[in-house]
Amino acid sequence: MIVYGSSLSPFVRKVLAFGTGKAIALDLKPAGMGRGGPDFEEASPFRKMPGFRDPGADDGRDFCISDSTAIVAYLEARFPDPNLIPTAPIARARTIWYEEFADTIVMAAGGKMFFNRFVAPKVLKVQGDTGVADKAEAEELPVLLDYIERVVPDSGFLVEDRITLADISVASPFVNLAHIGVGVDAARWPKAAAYIAGILARPSFAPIIANERAMVAGMG
After folding, report:
1. DSSP class of residue 79?
2. Which of the chain's ends, N or C, has fewer CB atoms near its CB within 10 Å?
3. For 169-190, how does the pLDDT look when each residue is reduced to its tens digit (9 = 90+)?
């Protein structure tokens, strides 16, 4: 199975970590930012990362889909064990909420920082709006960390006291923030800091992050 994109995208990283957590082999093909060609465009008609292809999944035909939520839903349905999206109604609802919280609310703030401090200057070779990034870090990020600090259970997992899509989704954007030197103040948010560090240290994330650090270092 193929994932199209770059793991520097929190959404691509989420899919890769989800697949690793389920012991599914996913082949990452570089795509996005003008890369990927016809195969990527078939999987993602609007050229958004990630795209996905499962060769021979549909009566011998390739199954293609885009959007990280659609991809992990497909993987969960096709490979139900170990389950990373709970089946109990309340636990499932909470998992979907935390994924939405990460994908829309956390990324709204994190995206402003990462785009203007990294993507614009390092990838697009244009000047980013540092004022927008600075404001997001000063005003938006603390509210999100206040929330995480409040909701993280003592177990260190958001739902059912075990790793689920909720944890994978919420932790993923914080890798991007680390790449631009934005950390979580453990004195102000001790539970949130420990939670994020613990999830990102898991085998599903650690190798991905190590590869990204080398990539980011190579880009200066």
Report:
1. S
2. C
3. 999 999 999 999 999 999 999 9
